[in-house]
Amino acid sequence: MNVLPELNPETYSLFQFTLTSRDEGTAAQKSHCWGENFSIEEAFNAARALVNRDHEAMRTLLRQKGETKEPTNLQICDTEFGYDLRHNYLVVSRYWIHAKPVLRKSA
Question: Largest CB tally within 10 Å, which of 9, 45, 88, 92?
Fold first, then answer.
């Protein structure tokens, strides 16, 4: 007798949410879908690679703006749903993995 519930197959999408500024100086959120039909492992690996890329780019930008030492207020935080890039405790970029069930075709 099988007591475990049957697991439904899922597909995973990877979204990026980024904090940007408008021309008038107000904050805005921008989103981008990096793809779907990932396995969960592929989705987390892709999210980690992208947040590492953003971290390097932002660290370089902060150095160019005059922060000569390592910016200690720039960090990557792993979350239940992906990764956040934070600067001064503000989330500036979020990579979020969304799971949804695979639709089964009716016979």
Answer: 92
Instruction: Take residue 102 and report the two structure tokens written for it.
Output: 């695979």
96 SS3 class: strand
What is the length of the chain?
107
State which amino acid sits at residue 13.
S
Show Cβ contacts of residue 2 under 8 Å, excluding neighbours closer than 6 positions: none
Query: DSSP assignment of 24-88, as one string?
Result: TS-EEEEEEEEEEEE-HHHHHHHHHHHHHHHHHHHHHHHHHTT--S--TTEEEEEETTEEEEEET
What the block records as the tokens of 40 is 């969960």
The domains of the chain are located at: 10-101
Helix (H, G, I), strand (E, B) or coil at 100: strand
- The pTM of the full predicted model, rounded to 2 decimals, is 0.78
